[in-house]
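Please fill in the sequence for the structure shown.

STRUCTURE ENCODING:
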């Protein structure tokens, strides 16, 4: 039983489909019902059980209600995935171009959203020895020129993951982060807005391409949520084709 925020497209959808292939029940927690229901149907078609629940990732009451709906319907929550990001994420710009309203939106969805999902999920994850997974980015490791707000919140997510892993380890709940580099509508939009970004990103990748969200990123997320990662917590796993060099 897994809940994935922001799973109407991109990496979130890829995670949902990968979990569906394993026969899992996957809740698509998102704002847009039509698109979320479509992904839930894809999950079901792959052999899982797809369901939709409306969720505004940065709003306390909405997150609380979404988690409560999952547990009331299915009786448990084994994994929670915070994938939702600000709609401003694919818009490159300097610090001078980034307004306080822009920064607040990034923080609301990525940082506050992670915190809210963690808080609401904890008692249910503790009851089953479950896992929380947070989608971050290589920008959270090394920063990104022209993506200052995005890089800041992605680094903050990594800090929260480490803190929660230490706090929740004794409770039997694992917390990890995944930093993918995948072909998604958001990345396509960022490349469209800043054509030089495509050259920079692909030029530094040993594999020379972006990953596939459903077949190359989703299965990694499924591993981190599942029993094969039972001794893995507090980590950020890079699934970026070797793009980010960490010394």
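FILLED IN BY: designer on duty
SEQUENCE:
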């Amino acid at each position: 039983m897994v809940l994935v925020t922001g799973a109407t497209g991109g990496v979130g959808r890829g995670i949902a489909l990968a979990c569906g292939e394993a026969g899992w029940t996957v809740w698509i927690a998102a704002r847009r019902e039509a698109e979320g229901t479509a992904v839930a149907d894809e999950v079901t078609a792959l052999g899982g059980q797809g369901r939709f629940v409306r969720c505004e990732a940065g709003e306390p009451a909405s997150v609380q209600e979404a988690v409560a709906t999952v547990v009331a319907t299915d009786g448990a929550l084994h994994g929670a995935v915070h994938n939702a990001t600000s709609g401003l994420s694919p818009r490159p710009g300097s610090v001078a171009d980034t307004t306080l309203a822009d920064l607040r939106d990034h923080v609301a969805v990525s940082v506050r959203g992670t915190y809210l999902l963690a808080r609401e999920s904890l008692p249910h994850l503790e009851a089953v020895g479950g896992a929380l997974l947070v989608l971050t980015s290589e920008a959270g490791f090394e920063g990104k020129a022209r993506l200052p707000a995005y890089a800041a919140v992605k680094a903050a997510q990594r800090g929260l993951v480490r803190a929660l892993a230490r706090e929740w380890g004794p409770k039997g709940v694992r917390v990890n982060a995944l930093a993918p580099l995948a072909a998604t509508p958001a990345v396509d939009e960022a490349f469209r807005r800043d054509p030089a970004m495509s050259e920079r990103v692909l030029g530094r990748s040993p594999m020379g391409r972006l990953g596939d969200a459903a077949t190359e990123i989703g299965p990694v997320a499924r591993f981190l949520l599942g029993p094969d990662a039972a001794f893995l917590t507090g980590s950020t796993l890079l699934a970026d084709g070797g793009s980010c060099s960490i010394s």
